[in-house]
Amino acid sequence: MLRSTLLKLSESKGFANWVTSNGTTRRMARRFVAGETLEEAVAAARACNDAGMAASLDYLGENVSSTGDAQHSRDAYLEIFERIAKEKLNANVSCKLTQLGLDLNADFCQGLVFSIVEFAGRYDNFLRVDMEGSPYTQRTIDLVKRVRARNPAIGTVIQSYLYRSETDVTDLLSYGCRIRLCKGAYKELPEVAYASKADVDANYVRLMKMLLSSGFYHGIATHDPRMIAATIRHAAAKQISKDDFEFQMLYGVRTDLQRRLVRDGYRVRIYIPFGQDWFPYFMRRLAERPANVGFLVRNFFRG
Fold first, then answer.
1. Theoretical Cys-Cys bridge with 194: which of 114, 153, 199, 240, CB 3.0 to 4.6 Å?
2. pTM of the model
């Protein structure tokens, strides 16, 4: 119930205005968001690199309402790739298609994505297309496959809470597509997604085994110690090298696990979100774990 309420509030413009104008809440968001500027994101990526971890920079935004806003987002991503190269960071980039105009026109969006991927390829870099709610799943996969047919410097995300994900993994692997596996953070109907955490976890393990055994380089995105342990066991049993996959985690979440995995010789990439449009992302992080809500309440009353 609490998770559903928070996810519903993430769609409220009125609540968003209140949260983003509240100084205490803005400070709390910094636990999960590196900052509002590219400079702050670059500094966070540098700190990750210094700690032995790679990074993925994400300029926050979604569901733009004009082609001009979408083009502005495209330009921001080109600037990010330029800064990564200039700063010699071990980092790639993540984006959402609705930030690049998918709601407006799929062909227009594809053109912007292709221009970003072409730009990334010049720097020998990579664009990860995030997965949004299930109404966007098929459109996202279709667009990624079309762009990848022209340039391989693109991959996407699969969410284990969706029933369809095993079929999608099989499809994307047939194209050689690199995949980030996560559990999923959106509110979904029982017709399309597992309601039970046990079922989501079981599907996560099934998909993880498919990915690690595929021969392609994938990201196993989780903060769940049981999913991490299952991944490590499978890799060891199948003699899959620690260099053949990476764990991915969110900025500000389970830094203890991040450090432990690095010490144990695993590759770790930290997803670093930044930008002024941080409210929906912040609300989804709160919805993931009750402890995050406790963090919000404690800090609110301290403020």
1. 199
2. 0.87
The domain locations on the chain are 34-277
Identify the DSSP state of 193.
B
Gap between the Cα atoms of 98 and 112, Å rounded? 11
From 130, 168, 201, 277, the catalytic residue: 130
DSSP E strand stretches across the chain: 54-59, 91-95, 127-129, 154-159, 179-182, 218-221, 245-250, 268-274
Within its chain, how far is the Cα of 276 from the centroid?
A: 17
Give domain 34-277's CATH number out of 3.40.50.880, 3.40.50.10950, 3.20.20.220, 3.40.50.300. Answer: 3.20.20.220
| Annotated catalytic residue 180 | yes
Q: What is the pLDDT along the chain (303 residues), one digit of tens a residue?
A: 545 655 555 455 655 555 555 555 556 666 788 888 999 999 999 999 999 999 999 999 989 999 999 999 999 999 999 999 999 999 999 999 999 999 999 999 999 999 999 999 999 999 999 999 999 999 999 999 999 999 999 999 999 999 999 999 999 999 999 999 999 988 899 999 999 999 999 999 999 999 999 999 999 999 999 999 999 999 999 999 999 999 999 998 899 999 999 999 999 999 999 988 777 777 777 766 655 555 555 544 444
Q: Cβ distance 189 to 214 under 8 Å? A: no
Active-site residue (options: 74, 180, 267, 285): 180
Q: What string of DSSP letters covers 48-114? A: HHHTT-EEEEEE-----SSHHHHHHHHHHHHHHHHHHHHHT-SEEEEE-GGGGTTTT-HHHHHHHHH
Residue closest to 246 by CA, chosen among 51, 85, 56, 44: 56
Q: What are 127's two structure tokens?
A: 């664009």
